[in-house]
Specification:
12 strands; 11 helices; single chain; two-stranded antiparallel ribbon; alpha/beta
Length: 295
């Protein structure tokens, strides 16, 4: 046999299958249960493979990727769709389809709408019964509180939106203590999400797309927050924001975000698929050849 080189490892016999330990690095999973980092494989008691926010039990064909089943039954913890716009007509269109569980706005969206913030927010709240986020614009806690209380007076379903700054956290603590919903926005790290939950935030808004823009994986942040909140049973809901694509929505659903807020065009894109269009075109052509009519 050839001489052993200094970087070679001495071969070690593999343990029997029933006693093998499979290590699951926490970084590899979007929603990792801390008690499942390592566990034995028992062929008679298949263990649950974590897969991006859900659990699945493999059958005899466990060499294949497991099919995932929701960790919580959908009726107990439904994912919510918020619409990220101040365009009332666009909100109404999706609302009529039952696709609107809430609305998020911000100063940029108010500018785009060309309308007064109090007026347009009141109109949205007149038909959307879920949370409607309206954002403060001051940078000091005392001024945020004054603005937040004025915005909250528009309707009982207003969620006051504050930035994730120290003054924003101060305002969050006071407003949540007064019984108002608070959406802490512009979150870009798990530490920020943790401290916002400690301050009593109703929603935390991590921005996926803006992290992707600087070559970071925004979905990793959603997974990290999900793990932390599950570890300590925080009630703050993860409101995934800066959603750019239909895949962002799918990935957030798999990880376990409580809410996604997306522009109307992204919500509509969820129904699109090139093979659906191709199949419908073929059916239409074949139906025309039959010469039949239903009505």
């Amino acid at each position: 046999p050839r001489p052993q080189r200094h970087l070679d490892e001495i071969p070690v016999a593999a343990p029997p299958f029933g006693r093998a330990i499979v290590q699951h690095p926490a970084q590899g999973f979007r929603r990792q249960d801390p008690h499942q980092i390592a566990r034995p494989i028992d062929p008679l008691q298949p263990f649950a493979f974590p897969c991006r926010g859900v659990w699945a039990k493999p059958g005899p064909e466990s060499i294949q990727p497991p099919r995932c089943t929701p960790r919580n039954p959908p009726e107990e913890n439904p994912m919510k769709f918020f619409i990220d716009t101040a365009d009332v007509d666009a909100i109404r269109e999706l609302h009529d389809l039952g696709m609107v569980d809430g609305v998020t706005t911000n100063p940029s969206l108010i500018l785009k709408s060309g309308r007064d913030i109090l007026e347009v927010t009141k109109e949205i709240c007149s038909f959307v019964k879920g949370p409607v986020s309206a954002e403060v614009v001051s940078l000091k806690a005392d001024e945020m509180l004054a603005e937040g209380r004025k915005l909250a007076a528009i309707a009982p379903n207003i969620a006051v939106k504050v930035p994730l700054t120290w003054d924003g956290l101060k305002a969050c603590k006071v407003l949540s203590g007064e019984g108002f919903m608070v959406n802490v926005t512009l979150c870009f790290s798990a530490n920020q999400a943790l401290i916002a939950a400690k301050a009593g935030a109703t929603f935390i808004s991590p921005f996926i797309g803006r992290l992707d823009d600087i070559n970071l994986d925004g979905l990793d942040l959603i997974g990290d927050i999900r793990t932390i909140y599950d570890n300590y049973d925080f009630k703050t809901q993860i409101l995934a924001a800066s959603i750019r694509t239909a895949n962002h929505v799918k990935d957030c659903a798999m990880i376990g975000a409580d809410v996604v807020t997306a522009p109307p065009n992204v919500i509509k894109a969820l129904a699109s698929h090139v093979l659906t269009d191709k199949g419908l075109d073929q059916f239409t052509k074949d139906w025309a050849k039959t010469g039949q009519k239903i009505l």
